Amino acid sequence: MAANGPSIALHRKCGFREVGRRERYGHLDGVWHDVFLFERRSVRTGGPGLPTRTCDAAG
């Protein structure tokens, strides 16, 4: 697990899921770090899947 394991655990506990990872992307104090990308879908705009809003072309 990455050095920021507690942060990753907190994000997962709060409903976020990992959608990406950049390996050796961040450099700090002579050490390379992985960078994680998390997302949490909004229930208002589509719940667990993709947003369900549609665009009315006639409008």
Structure notes:
- By secondary structure, this protein is of the alpha+beta class.
- The protein is built from 1 helix and 2 strands.
- The chain has one helix at residues 5-13; strands at 17-28, 31-39.
- It has a two-stranded antiparallel ribbon with strand order 1-2.
- The protein is elongated and about 45 Å long.
- The N and C termini lie far apart (50 Å).
- The mean pLDDT is 79.
Give the strand tally: 2
Largest sheet: 2 strands, antiparallel
Strand content: 35-45%
Q: Tell me the quaternary state.
A: single chain
Kindly name the structural category: alpha+beta
Q: How would you describe the shape?
A: elongated
Mean pLDDT: 79
Whole-angstrom Rg: 17 Å
- Biggest sheet, spatial arrangement of strands: 1-2
Number of helical elements: 1
Q: Ranges with pLDDT <50 over ≥5 residues?
A: none
Measured between the Cα atoms of the first and last residue, the distance is 50 Å
Write the SSE topology.
Elements: H1 5-13, E1 17-28, E2 31-39
Antiparallel strand pairs: 1-2
Which characteristics define this entry?
59 residues, alpha+beta, two-stranded antiparallel sheet
Compact overview of the structure:
This protein is of the alpha+beta class and 59 residues long.
